[in-house]
Sequence to fold (153 residues):
Amino acid sequence: MRSTANAVPAQDGSPRFVHDYLGYLLGQANHALFKDFEAVVRAAGLGSLEWRVLATLSDQAPMPVGQLAQEVLSQQPTVTKLLQRLSAQGWVQLTDDPQDQRRTLVTITAAGQKKITPLMAQASEHEKQTLTGLSAAEIQRLKAQLRALTHTR
Fold:
């Protein structure tokens, strides 16, 4: 990942706010991790949201659309529209929630799993290459800290 150590200082010579602001640094890290991999996703005929949806569903029991939207960091109406397209392509299945008919559950299909599995392997390899400068312990610690920050497991 690119370091901000050689970043241009503020006009007064002090370090710039954004170079030490966690939100900015996390955004930069996300960009560094995804920018090269995005070409792989596009070559597979997917957009970044489609990739996130299918990857999220790949190892998940049927999930409510609202929960999926939260996990893929998108608005529910946007995800709902995308799911309709993915369903038409046969990559996801939409069903009524038997506990609550107002909710829709989404599941990845075998065709969707076939589409996303090779990309997930490529994503893991890309992550490994991107994080080459960090030890396995540092990577695990970083991931644990990020999960704690985002309150995920």
Q: What stands out?
A: The helical segments are 22-34, 37-43, 48-57, 65-71, 76-88, 110-130, 136-150. The first helix runs from residue 22 to 34. The beta strands are 63-64, 92-97, 100-108. Residues 1-5 have pLDDT under 50 and may be disordered.
